[in-house]
């Protein structure tokens, strides 16, 4: 009897998006390692980091394993990175408060998401990063307000440098995704995503379809393989 060593209830995959230089990698490092790198080393292709957390909701305690994919913002990697959209359950969309161009690009990123994500209305949290650079800020609160109202996006201002609101941004996205999961166990788009998604071990597709279970017999393993695109 094969028993998988799974000590969490949910595996959530997130994708971090935004123009090159907005601070995606730094934000992620700050979240997972509590460190900031001032040197700019542009991401090549795609990378990921992981973190565990506990999410309490409706009187229940859920152990979550977060897998956060860090994409390259450079245009030349776009076809590679969009291929990862469909496997993600939530998106952290980042712009730089000191770069108007990165803010104006947000509508294009949303359009990309609409085309390539698991749903036309995926869970997205918008982050205005580099809020520590007060003197260099060029994107006004009014501009942001108009955008978030138009697209109904949760919005938060972060600093990968000081760590301000970094954890809150990630928890905001976890909350959105978990709420969708809890509210819509029968949501076809999401359940399809969960069952087709690569590297989601021991997923059970049934009335409690999004709970992860320990795989305890070969029949379960066969079911998993059938539902998996790996
Ligand atoms: N002051 C300040 N600088 C930041 C912040 N976040 C990132 N930076 C700086 O911005 C530059 C780019 O950061 P990265 O995290 O590498 O940018 P990226 O979005 O991952 O860029 P690509 O990998 O090319 O897509 C680096 O020099 C960072 O030190 C922040 O919150 N405040
Ligand atoms: Mg990067």
UniProtKB/TrEMBL annotation:
Gene Ontology molecular functions: GTP binding; GTPase activity
Family matches, as SMART domains: RAB (SM00175), RAN (SM00176), RAS (SM00173), RHO (SM00174)
Keywords: GTP-binding, Lipoprotein, Nucleotide-binding, Prenylation
A Pfam family annotated for this UniProt entry: Ras
Gene Ontology terms: biological process: exosomal secretion
Family: Belongs to the small GTPase superfamily. Rab family.
Stated name of the protein: Small monomeric GTPase
